[in-house]
């Protein structure tokens, strides 16, 4: 029982290694990503494990089929980087980890807002330079503010509940509203056009679909409340970066906190500290004093990594034994 694991870091090898070893599954780890250019490295394996920036398009999946691969295991919830229809046509089972730790992502979202609003990064850097001035560090109370949650799956609901704990009014938009949750936590559902102008903070928690690509664009940014803060810990392509830069330059937004970026492939998860950053839009975003960016780390907790490893290892083991994958993990 052998599986090839792509785009791995030290923490992947630690947590996945422990989980796979317990089940007797042998793993080969690759630091490079799986794509059409690297697909021939999967020729000895029946299963491959990939992450958010591996590219499994139709041609790549056909090559995997030719080499005898019958399982693609995503160690994440999102799957927009996999042509699921082509996988089904090739007879390849695709599984994911739909709910590794919604608390991790929701908590990171709130941490980003607090750090940005209360100028924690600036204050930390000042104090290390023995500058104890408070000038320019004024923030605002979250208590009493209105937070708009866009997408109320597990992560969005937890984020909304946390904001309710801060004493915020919480609004929500989702094509499939959970009215029971909303009633329990005093959350008001409404359409996006009504939510945006009322929200002091807009927090995105959506999967990426063709319908919501660039959900926030020049038009929707224009309807946001002046001085509002934007949070995105879900998918980078929900936000039109060019439009975001323009609205930041205009001063309309109070602040932006991102854990994802629409062109993050080849940048996030890598150490580029000794290189020139060739992405002009990301470089421009990093110049704004009211923008805080982390490199897709919202999921990175011990609990989340353990659950990702457990589900991935279990599905691989069951597949090798001819058993069905865990419930809710099949795409």
Protein model, in words:
- With 331 residues, the chain is an alpha/beta fold.
- The chain has 2 domains: 2-100 and 301-320, NAD(P)-binding Rossmann-like Domain (Rossmann fold, 3-Layer(aba) Sandwich); 102-293, NAD(P)-binding Rossmann-like Domain (Rossmann fold).
- The protein is 36% helix and 14% strand.
- It has 12 helices and 12 strands.
- It has helices at residues 10-22, 58-66, 84-89, 102-117, 120-128, 154-165, 179-185, 192-198, 218-222, 241-250, 280-285, 302-320, and strands spanning 2-5, 26-29, 47-50, 71-74, 93-95, 146-150, 169-173, 188-189, 201-204, 229-232, 255-258, 291-293.
- The strands form 2 sheets. A 7-stranded parallel beta sheet has the order 8-7-6-9-10-11-12, sandwiched between helices. A 5-stranded parallel beta sheet has the order 2-1-3-4-5.
- Strand 3 (47-50), helix 2 (58-66) and strand 4 (71-74) form a beta-alpha-beta unit.
- Helix 1 (10-22) crosses helix 12 (302-320) and helix 4 (102-117) crosses helix 6 (154-165).
- It starts with a strand and ends in an 11-residue tail after the last helix.
